[in-house]
Amino acid sequence: MAQPNNFGFGEDEAMLRDSARRWFEDHYPPERLHTLVAADSDPHRANEAAWAREDWAAIAELGWAAACVPEAAGGAGLSFVAALGLAEEAGRAGYPGPLEATLAATAVLNACGDAAGSALGEIAAGRAYGVAVAGLEGIVDGSTDVAVQDGRLTGRAAWVQDARKVERFVVAARGDDGLGLYAVDAAADGVAVVPDAIVDLTRDQATLLFAGCDATELAAPGQGHAALETALPALLALVAADMVGAGEWLLQTTAEYARTRQQFDRPLGFFQAIKHPLVNVMIAIDRARSLTWNAGCAVDHEPADALRFARMAKSEASDMAGFAASRAVQFHGGIGFTWECYVHMFFKRQLHSQVLLGDGRHQRAKLAELLIDAA
Questions:
Q1: Rounded distance between C-alpha atoms, residue 228 and residue 132, angstroms
Q2: Chain-centre distance for alpha carbon 333
Q3: Which of 5, 65, 200, 251 is deepest in the core (most CB within 10 A)?
């Protein structure tokens, strides 16, 4: 099936993205974000999941988390590119809540078939979900250290995003007949959430320890690997979209600083050493955005090519993230390295996203394998 015009981004998707941008501009200006996640600069501060829980209720009421939940389960039933629009705006705002984790869980649940209907209905009702489907190397490849027996999980799942902000997890676990997917309550007996120390102030990451906890089957043993393969392009594209949004914030903030900061009686942006690299950042963001939307459209319309396109998008976005973040810090001069400058929040978010699910080098290696296998 050929891709539609504008990556399938229609009127409904555009309205959703625009409403998200306005909401984030009103509720998450950088001043509030800094107060929320960066109020304490002490390097020995407690490892806390800083976010405004009450804002999740507002987001759920707006229907963002349920954007890609099928109508039969109570959602809006929009195409996957609607989720990309939300992820890009969340990245632009540095939103510290579990929106993207829930969108990722929705993608996995949609790949599970009818058995996931109840879980999708919970997301439509406003329940935040997370995914614990990456292997111990941080890659979604079907490997897992979690085992299932008689409907109970044991083992550990690493690299779980926003683990202290969600109510339920979608967990990959291996049984006698192969890999399966299961829903687990975050507060269930036998579930321990062990926080990781990460550089990103806007996110929370943890390792989950399972000690015989009850689980609800979403994909039977032997069927989980296929569901993860189906969902992987969406997971990669969501992270890429977040980096595109954060990169856009860094670019626009740095460009505004270059227009107003005076050096040698001229705006900083007058000098070629500043304006030329900023143009290169803009080009890098546009490349990453185009590839990301292409990948999202493929999830909807060209599933056979979706993984290839998603790896291209994640590779380009990861490289762009490091480039845009470093230019923003350097072009803010001495203040750019301070805690009080808002740039560091987005710099750290980009560094985290850059390696999440595999950095650019990893994605290019996987792309090479795909192309060689197809030759």
A1: 11
A2: 30
A3: 65
